[in-house]
Amino acid sequence: MDVTLSKKVAYQILSHFDKSYRWFTRITRGAQSRFEQGQWKEIQLASKERITIYEQSLSDAVADVYHLTEVHKKNDEFWQELKKTFARQLEGHPQFELAETFYNSVIGRLFKHRKIDNSMMFVLPSRCFLPGQDRDKVIHSFDTTTTVREMYVSIFKIYRYGIPFEDYERDMQNLEEALRKRLTTQQLASVHTVELLKPTFFRGKSAYLIGRICMPEETLPFVISLQRSDEHTLFVDALLTHRSDLSVIFGFARSYFMADTQNPAEVAAFLQELLPNKKHFELYMSLGHYKHGKTVFYRNFLDHMDTTDDHFEAAPGIRGLVMMVFHLPSYGVVFKIIKDEFAESKKITREHVKDCYRLVKMSDRVGRMADTHEYVNFRFPLARIDPLLVEELKETCASSLEFTEDELVIKHLYIERKMTPLNLYLQQEEDEDKIRSALNELGLCIKQIAMANIFPGDMLHKNFGITRHGRVIFYDYDEICLMNERHFRALPKSDDPYAMDMLSVGPTDVFPEQFEHFIVGKRKLKDILKSLHGDLMTPEYWHEVQMKCARGDIQHFTPYNANVRFNRGVKSISK
Questions:
Q1: Which helix (H) or strand (E) holds 221?
Q2: How far apart are CA 238 and CA 564, in angstroms?
Q3: Which residues sit in the known binding site?
Q4: What is the spatial distance between Cα 409 and Cα 381, in angstroms, rounded to a whole number?
Q5: Are 29 and 55 in contact, with CB atoms under 8 Å apart?
Q6: CA 452 to CA 545: how far, in whole Å?
Q7: Catalytic residue among 371, 458, 476, 478
Q8: Pairing of strands 333-338, 407-417
């Protein structure tokens, strides 16, 4: 065993991780300046760059490993020792869990994900992280023995920004009134701790201070939402103290936050205490550590498999023309595989589908497009797969399957949060108000995706899901494109019954007036959608959106309910 070589390789892998995290931090740290200066386009570019960092750093690390050693001439003993050596180098490392994932990625790339073995990779973490040991590094605590007003003043002495408040006095008063309205006098008197995470959470045109109010009987989220005005001033938009609001802010259909910290495990643990219903992997992903989120998901998946006995089966809903989708009924995700052959109506390729999913990953999902995560050589125990599903997978996705004696290996798949398909929801729901709300959400979803410069393409309501919060989310991406890649046309106005037959239609032509015939099926639902969002069925609406996208307009859609936003009233610059 060449111990010296093992140390060299481990050192190089860790060096590449550290360089990658410094790069990640540099982009994240620039979020405050971009927010203050209103550099909305630069914010989107920075988000895209930060997503690409991992793959670039991984490629560099793998190249170095090949330079240092003859990879495929080394036996398993070498790789097992390398893992142990790497683990020793992580002693005291503030991002050890992310570094382990990076190491896994290197080994996965070297062996094409064929050696998913805990003796060679960190399938399980090398150590148990105890939340709270570094808590003082990630939170500020505020004195609650003073008045509510004085507490807020002390908060904004610590959290300072390079632009003035639009109206400091108004904002302090709004914050105080909101807290007094939320808590009774007795509750206010019982507050013993107010904590805020040190990093400001930047995303899009908003910034958030995220923390909690602690009382003897309960703990509430405490989130101050900040925005920047067109006059280059700062204003407080809302105070959020309900977990449902915080859950939507951290929703799986939103872009990743820019939150600068050197202790991501501690930040994720604090957020988990605020949002116990969120999976730990979702919180890592929300911080931009999507690769580590995938690692934590896989560990969560293995734990779930050990404690359940239900079987994988085809997901409920209408079968897709491009994707085969299945799920484990007791687990909150779906697994999606690209089919070997598509229906004649789908003039696309397998690579096109992958490109569409990459486009969504790199775009601002504006709370309306589900985040997806790509895996290769994902293993499922055959004994837990319904035989009918196995047969259907063989019929539709054979090229993506590999069978061993006791496992099904899927060479390429996506995971995505499980939602109720909107078509099933509308079939089953009897409450008229909920039906109307869901259809309003459907229209808003289509509009907001379009304003994010993405044309959804196939807008059948079966391609949308509805969350437990009643939000409609788009999740079928095989026909999406940028807004400028479609030509929105009006249908001919003519008494000639053959006018439609003679209409010349190009491959990029879209006729919005026809949307009403296929977005939803039943006449009653069509009428409701038209009454709420009839403009979607006009080419003029889509031309206007195209013009805004061409100008580079960046839209902002507040993730929480509009009725909690503060009244800004008269503007005056202060502080």
A1: strand 219-228
A2: 6
A3: 315-321, 336
A4: 9
A5: no
A6: 9
A7: 371
A8: antiparallel
CA 341 to chain centre: 29
Quote the DSSP letter at residue 255: P
User: Hunting for tokens 């807008």 — which residue is that?
Assistant: 459
431 is catalytic: no
Instruction: Supply the DSSP string of 433-502, one letter for each residue.
Output: HHHHHHHHHHHHHHHHHHHTTEE-----GGGEEE-TTS-EEE---TT-EEGGG-EE-PPP--S-TTTTTT
Per-residue pLDDT of the chain (575 residues; tens, 9 = 90+): 577 899 999 999 999 999 999 999 999 999 999 999 999 999 999 999 999 999 999 999 999 999 999 888 888 899 999 999 999 999 999 999 999 999 999 999 998 767 778 889 999 998 888 888 899 999 999 988 889 999 999 999 999 999 999 999 999 999 999 999 999 999 999 999 999 999 999 999 999 999 999 999 899 999 999 999 999 999 999 999 999 999 999 999 999 999 999 999 999 999 999 999 999 999 999 999 999 999 999 999 999 999 999 999 999 988 888 999 999 999 999 999 999 998 887 888 999 999 999 999 999 999 999 999 999 999 999 999 999 999 999 999 999 999 999 999 999 999 999 999 999 999 999 999 999 999 999 999 999 999 999 999 889 999 999 998 899 999 999 999 999 999 999 988 766 655 555 566 788 999 999 998 889 888 999 999 999 999 999 999 999 999 999 999 898 888 998 899 999 885 544 44
